[in-house]
């Protein structure tokens, strides 16, 4: 009778095999990362010349479904005005607010001061979007990358 050979298994190799099998999956998953969003059209320099720039977007809301925001900055000579429209979308009905005032730019921050004394701060992101900030210019938490207003129009005076 032929001798029965018993196969020996390397138990350590059994434990390592699943890790090696997953390695190509991890590498392929990293290669399949989604393409970055195309940046919005560049925004003309805020401090250069007369004209206006407009942003809009939907921001999160704690007690409504969203806040639709439209912000227009206007510059004529030394005068810098803004018009901010916010529409709070809620099941019980929408509430629309209009605010006017003066704006100033301090590095990458826009400071808005309403005619009623209200104050707001937005960060001008490198891609031209505006992101709401606290009164000291710090990011609001929790923050998502899409919590920003997108530039939609810009005009310059001749």
From TrEMBL:
<keyword id="KW-0732">Signal</keyword>
<protein>
    <recommendedName>
        <fullName>Copper resistance protein NlpE</fullName>
    </recommendedName>
</protein>
<dbReference type="InterPro" id="IPR007298">
    <property type="entry name" value="Cu-R_lipoprotein_NlpE"/>
</dbReference>
<dbReference type="Pfam" id="PF04170">
    <property type="entry name" value="NlpE"/>
</dbReference>
<feature type="signal peptide">
    <location>
        <begin position="1"/>
        <end position="29"/>
    </location>
</feature>
């Amino acid at each position: 009778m032929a001798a029965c050979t018993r196969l020996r298994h390397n138990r350590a190799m059994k434990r390592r095999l699943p890790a090696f099998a997953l390695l190509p999956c991890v590498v392929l998953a990293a290669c399949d990362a989604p393409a970055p969003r195309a940046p919005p059209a560049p925004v003309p320099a805020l401090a250069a010349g007369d004209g206006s720039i407009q942003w809009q977007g939907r921001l999160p809301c704690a007690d409504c479904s969203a806040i639709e925001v439209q912000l227009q900055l206007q510059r004529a000579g030394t005068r810098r005005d803004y018009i901010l429209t916010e529409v709070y979308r809620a099941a019980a009905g929408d509430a629309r607010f209009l605010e006017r005032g003066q704006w100033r730019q301090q590095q990458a921050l826009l400071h808005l001061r309403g005619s009623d004394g209200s104050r707001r701060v937005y960060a001008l992101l490198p891609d031209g979007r505006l992101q709401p900030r606290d009164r000291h210019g710090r990011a609001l938490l929790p923050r998502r990358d899409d919590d920003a207003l997108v530039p939609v129009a810009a005009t310059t005076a001749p």
